[in-house]
Amino acid sequence: MVVSSIMSSGSSLHKLASPKIAAVVAAASLALAACAEQSDLAPVKEMVLPELAEIEAIEAEQLEGLLKEKKIRLIDVRTDEEVAKGMIPGAEHIELDKFDPAKLDLSDGREPVLYCNSDRRSGIAAEKLAKHTGKKARHLKGGFQAWRDAQLPVRLY
Fold this sequence. Notes:
Blueprint: H1 2-7, H2 13-16, H3 19-33, H4 44-48, E1 55-58, H5 60-69, E2 72-76, H6 80-83, E3 92-93, E4 111-115, H7 120-133, E5 137-140, H8 143-149
Parallel strand pairs: 1-5, 2-3, 2-4, 4-5
C-alpha cells in the first residue's frame, strides 16, 4: 500500500527509473514505513536516489513568458550550423557535445532552460543538468521547431 501510493503519487520517478531502481525505492519505502508516518515518506526518493531529478518539457508559449520575466538562462544546445539558421532571442549557445553542467555559472539565480531543434538533445542536456544539480531541469518541448511553429520571434544571423 505504501509503495503503490509513492509510485502513483504523481511523481515522475516511475517514468525515469529503471525497474531495478524503482524496486530499490520500493524496498526503502517499505523499510521506512515500519517506523514512519506515511507523510514522512515523501523524501524517500531523494534519500535513496539523489541523482534522479525531474525533467520537465515546457511549451513554447510558456518559455516565451519565462523569457519576458527574465528569470531564466536560455541555452541552445544545437550545432553551429543549426544556430546559423536562427536562434531564440536571448539564448546563449553551448553545443551539446560541449555542454558540461559543472562548468555552468549558476550563481545569478536564473534557472537554466535548454532547447535544441526537436527536444531530443535538450532532453539529454536536461538529464545531465538535473543529475548535476539534483534539481528539476526544464527544456523546450518540440524544440526550436515548436518555437517557430508557434510563430514566436527568431533572431537571424
